[in-house]
Amino acid sequence: MQRRITVLAIALAALASGCASRRPIGHFGDGAFYHTRGHYRIRYGSAPTRLLPDGWRLTNYDHGDDGAPTAEHVDEVEIDASMLMGRGRAQGIRVPKIDLLYQQEDGDGEIWVRTMVLPAGWEQASAEQVLQTWASSVEQGHLTVDPLGRMPAGHATLTHWGSAVVDGEAAHWVELDVNRGGVDQRVTVVGVRPGHHHWRRGRRQRFPMLLMFGYVSSPDEHEAVRHDFEQLVRRVDIGR
Amino acid sequence: MRALTPIALLVCAWPLAAQAQSDEAPPVDEFEDAEVALGSPRPVDTWTLDDGVGADEVPWDTFDPSYDYFPRGPLQVGLEARISALPTTSLATSPRPQLELHGFLNFRYSARSPWQMRVGVAIAWEPHESTNLGGGTFVTTSALYVRLRVLPLSVDFGRNFGLRAGPDVGFQYAPSPGGGAILFAAGGTAQIVARTDDGRFEAGVHAGAQLTGIDRLERPNPYDYYDQAGGASFNVDPIVGATAGYLF
Predict the structure, then answer these.
(1) Which of B47, B48, B64, B155 to mutate against chain A (most A CBs within 10 Å)?
(2) What chain B residue is nearest to A13 in terms of C-alpha separation?
(3) Which residue from A33, A210, A239, B169 has the highest number of Cβ atoms inside 10 Å of its Cβ?
(4) C-alpha distances out from residue A9 to A5, A13, A93, B44, B190, Å
(5) What is the pTM of this model?
């Protein structure tokens, strides 16, 4: 009898592991990086299998022998869905902190892509409203500009902002100067709200979201990094 | 002459106006100090981050979905063959083989979901048995089965294994001496398969049970074909065997 129970337990565990596999962030397929949920893709640039030119290293993926990204490293954050919905029981939803993270090989620059899940009440908010609120929170020290939270929030100042267009969609950008531990950094973030896309959890829960594209560097190198960043975001296609 | 006057004035005044403009100090922004104090400089021009290339030039559907389950697509047509054994013995039946051909539609709920459903028609044959129980009573087991098979519990484990299970229902034919009988048929099946060729070919083992129909013919007078009666009963027979299928 005990043996049967053991076999049954193994079978159930195998069934559960097969069905509860974690959803990947995205994958590098033919011609582009595709977000798993179909929210967006980024077409490859001048190199046939690269989003950014040489000198940039994709750090949240392993790479095969040919340099192509293979297994991904997902760093997730758990958000209380009841907080996002403004009601209901506390239920955690796991969201990747970052979709793509590139680091400069010969510098301190970073380019990242992130999908931020928003509270349900922000359904009608524009990218400008969301991003300005985010920037204000960063200025006040409630949030850190680093999506991975590797460094604590420092002293940040919102210096510039403006409107933008990403794949034909109205977008917004902000620029902040940050001082963390005596190190000056400049951060530029572009946000776009693909209103027809939602972050879904199961069949019933869906949350608005903000696609964020950011680049970080020292103030002196910011203009140089900006070129590569622009080329990346220009190749973004938002799912229709 | 009167008409040329405004033109002459414009031509003469243009260099003077341009000179005056170049000598002008830059316009004073009376709000600049306030903005600096508030830390809120003005927005600048729209930053266009769009290369104008869209889904038309690089179609979205042509990519290689590395994490999709195979075969790709929401619907496949499949064909499956089974060779089975019905190993038990009863009053009317003895261990026997069964051959089955199963044509089905495979519905996948989503490209990245391991869950799917199969609906198909299975046609099976097994050697029937006729037994004379004495007293003019013959019993004949079924030889042909046509069953609608629904496998709602159909799930892939990774790319190489799958589990399918569900009921089937239909009719069966028992070729009894009285002209044959068509009876109700039902059963259930479960199979574990290994998959290859991008999930198109699958082979494995299956187990289940079926209601085997037993047609009973009572003919007390062997020379009088019109003096006969009959009925049917069912036997629950377990089935085990091997299966192989291909999805097109």
Answers:
(1) B47
(2) B157
(3) A33
(4) 6, 6, 27, 63, 18
(5) 0.57
pLDDT at A151 over 60: yes
Say which residue the tokens 């869209």 belong to. B54
CB distance A161 to B40 below 8 Å:
no
* Residue numbers in A near B45 (CB within 8 A): 162
How many residues can be counted in chain A?
Answer: 240
The answer to whether residues A132 and A126 touch, using CB atoms and an 8 Å cutoff, is no
Cβ–Cβ under 8 Å, residues B102 and B79: yes
Say what the pLDDT of residue B101 is: 95
**pLDDT bracket for residue A88 (50, 70, 90):** low
| Whether A129 contacts chain B with CB within 8 A | no
**Using CA of residue B110, residue B116, residue B121, residue B123, what is the dihedral sign?**
positive
Strands (E), B65-223: 75-86, 96-108, 115-125, 130-134, 137-141, 144-157, 161-174, 181-196, 201-218
- pLDDT tens for B158-194 read 778 899 999 999 999 999 877 888 999 999 999 999 9
pLDDT band, very low/low/confident/very high, at B4 (cuts 50, 70, 90) = very low
Structure-block tokens of residue B33: 């100090």
- CB spacing of B64 vs A19 below 8 angstroms: no
- Give CA A208 to chain center in angstroms: 14
3-state secondary structure of B109: coil
Q: Cα–Cα distance between A148 and B185 in angstroms, integer? A: 60
Q: Which residue has the tokens 């068509």?
A: B182
At CB < 8 A and 24+ separation, what contacts does B41-45 make? B41/A159, B41/A160, B43/A161, B43/A162, B43/A163, B44/A160, B44/A162, B45/A162
